[in-house]
């Protein structure tokens, strides 16, 4: 939130494989030279199999502090993975309300599809964050942003984007959003001393699994650019 600043595009990790077709499982190709020019940020590029393998080997942290290989979350079934911005972000809290109200856990179970949420603040904030939305889905933390960057979520900005691209899930403006976050924090006893995450880091949505497969990829281009959850579920077959 705050005053808009132009988006920054940091250097993405080098890649040595080509991208899979959008909406299809990604296929491997041979690795070539040691160094490659950095890729520019791409909101919709499907992660390659090499990227998926790299991300899958990285750890995320559960609300109990247990480190879990990210790949275990989607090793055996298809999983919708929502990467949020920092835990204090009112825009992402609006999105979490939208997810909690419009995603039926029973419908997911019928299709054998999971849903998890990943943030990048302190794992100590996860329990109270889940309580805010009474969310039945698991949350994890990636405090070092390693999984975010492995999957190409390298864009940092506090720009809210043009009004016509504002996500329909956004219910609050600046002051109303701040007031909501404060109310939520007081209601659940949010640990205000814990790190909420990088306020400029953007997230995105993916449909991953089973195994090293990707059926959907969307990376946020501004702070109000989460993908409609209905679109993400449709890509997962729900």
Automatic annotation (TrEMBL):
SUPFAM superfamilies: Thioredoxin-like. Coiled coil: none annotated. Residues 1-45 are annotated as: Disordered. Pfam families: AhpC-TSA_2. PANTHER family: PEROXIREDOXIN-LIKE 2C (PTHR28630:SF3), PTHR28630. This is Thioredoxin domain-containing protein.
């Amino acid at each position: 939130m705050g005053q808009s600043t132009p988006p920054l595009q940091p250097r993405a990790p080098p890649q040595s494989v080509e991208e899979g077709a959008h909406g299809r499982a990604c296929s491997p190709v041979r690795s070539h030279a040691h160094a490659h020019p950095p890729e520019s940020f791409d909101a919709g590029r499907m992660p390659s199999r090499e990227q998926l393998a790299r991300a899958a080997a990285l750890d995320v942290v559960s609300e109990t502090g247990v480190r879990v290989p990210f790949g275990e979350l989607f090793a055996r079934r298809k999983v919708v993975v929502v990467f949020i911005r920092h835990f204090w972000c009112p825009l992402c809290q609006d999105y979490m309300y939208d997810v909690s109200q419009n995603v039926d856990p029973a419908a997911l179970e019928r299709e054998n599809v999971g849903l998890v949420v990943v943030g990048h603040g302190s794992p100590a904030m996860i329990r109270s964050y889940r309580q805010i939305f009474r969310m039945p889905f698991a949350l994890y933390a990636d405090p070092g942003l390693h999984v975010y960057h492995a999957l190409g979520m390298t864009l940092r900005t506090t720009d809210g984007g043009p009004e016509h691209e504002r996500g329909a899930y956004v219910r609050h403006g600046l002051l109303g959003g701040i007031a909501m976050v404060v109310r939520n924090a007081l209601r659940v006893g949010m640990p205000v001393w814990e790190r909420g995450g990088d306020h400029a880091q953007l997230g995105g949505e993916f449909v991953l699994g089973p195994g090293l497969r990707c059926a959907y990829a969307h990376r946020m281009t501004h702070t109000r650019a989460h993908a409609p959850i209905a679109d993400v579920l449709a890509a997962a077959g729900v």
